[in-house]
Amino acid sequence: MASRRLLVHSATQVVQVVNNGERVLTGPAMKKLEIIQRTNEDGVSIVIDSKGNIEAIGLDGEVKKTFKNATYEKTIDATGMSIIPGLVDGHTHPVWAGDRVHEFAMKLAGATYMEVHESGGGIHYTVEHTRKATEDELLHSLKSRLWRMLKSGTTLVECKSGYGLNADTEIKMLQVIERAKRKVPIDISSTYCGAHAVPKGSSASEATKDVIDVQIPRIHKLMQEEKLHVDNIDVFCELGVFNVEQTKQILEAGKNIGLQINFHGDELHPIKSAEMGADLGATAISHLEEVSDLGIEKMAESGTIAVILPTTAYILRLNNPPVRKMLASGVAVALGSDFNPNAYCLSMPLVMHLACVNLHMTMNEALVAATLNAAASVGKSSTHGSLEVGKYGDMVILDEPKWENMIYQLGGHNHVIKHVIKQGKVVV
Ligand SMILES: N=CN[C@@H](CCC(=O)O)C(=O)O
Ligand SMILES: [Zn+2]
Q: Domain named Amidohydrolase-related: which ranges (predicted)?
């Protein structure tokens, strides 16, 4: 038998999140975590096989007995430490050139997101710079952002295009994401978001037509030729951007080429994006600061996951999304950093902290939302998001006996995180 990749032993606690093959948790079920705790005699061990999957989890004594003659490429003594699954970031815009640090001052002085956007800044500013950037330049900055995410514990991340707004630049961005998958040890769910804004000089209906008749067919062809692997379709459904009907048409066109529906809805105005998304059977809807009660009810019924982005409401001083109401209604809640030039945050532990303090989630709920449910929001919870036999050996080893320190120690996660493990390999 080939050598196994990794043995971690003597941990104080291993937070599995779930241990019965659950693929998503809703509402009240998000309150409870499955945890294996050390006993007086024994710590907790995890064995990762030669392919990078979890082969066993249990008390040290049992594991030692079962794997008596096993050899390992690496062994980690986790005495005094806790272990959680690799974090999953359900929503990011990490491919772009030209930061918007100057706009932060404008927003602090009171300019709203749409005022900046309508004056030609915001997404338009980033589009201008991203169109000019080469693939190599975009890849260079993307790689460093992905490494910062990894160092903060993220091992699976959703990454959007959306600063091209024309076929050539959208494809350039998707190709950059494709190349990054081979360069950085982080898993990526790739999202086409050509309808992220209405390009300057076009109307929303012209842009809708371009996305459906030009961009999607070109992306589909590249997918069929296996040159691109795209997983999700996204639209910014918002007053003054794409309306509900235009969004629906674009999402349907994406669904027709096999993409999962995962879009921005009800962020700044209550325009019934959630109702439409639930009717379409969307996998996930992000933001939802202004979601209606009916929208929540329909999302619970359709099993559409709410991807909540605590940084957005915090930075833009928006209403907080009604997360407690969603949880009480049985909606599955996931979390994302929303990393983009407006919300420059690459850290899921910080996002979880904001979710707890500002959105009134419990720490257990925040961990479920940042692991299993975020994985489910990109259709990957059969491999990611919990520590169970057969799943990817992706985990974060914390230099604290109680995992909650990762949230509690505000801004201190880089000290709390001892190692990040991707499929059994120590990457941080
Ligand atoms: N709201 C739309 N999209 C992004 C912001 C993108 C940008 O401002 O560049 C978001 O999710 O927050
Ligand atoms: Zn976004």
A: 83-427
Substitution site in 236, 263, 269, 287 for ligand 1 pocket (most atoms within 8 Å of beta carbon)? 236
Mind listing the pLDDT tens digit for each residue in 90-133?
999 999 999 999 999 999 999 999 999 988 899 999 999 999 99
**Helix 123-132 with 167-183: angle, nearest 10 deg:** 70
- Packing angle between helix 216-224 and helix 167-183, nearest 10 degrees? 40
Residues within 6 Å of ligand 1 by CB: 93, 122-123, 126, 236, 264, 267, 312, 338, 340-343
Largest pairwise CA distance in the chain: 70
266-279, pLDDT tens digit by residue? 999 999 999 999 99
CB of 264 closer than 8 Å to CB of 257: no
What global pTM score does this model have? 0.98
Residues 6+ apart with CB under 8 A from 374: 87, 88, 89, 90, 156, 307, 334, 335, 336, 385
Question: How do residues 301-347 score in pLDDT, each as one tens digit?
Answer: 999 999 999 999 999 999 999 999 999 999 999 999 999 999 999 99
**CB under 8 Å to 202, separation ≥6 — which residues?**
210
Cα–Cα dist 376/380, whole Å: 5
- CA distances 413 to 12, 357, 364, Å, are 18, 16, 17
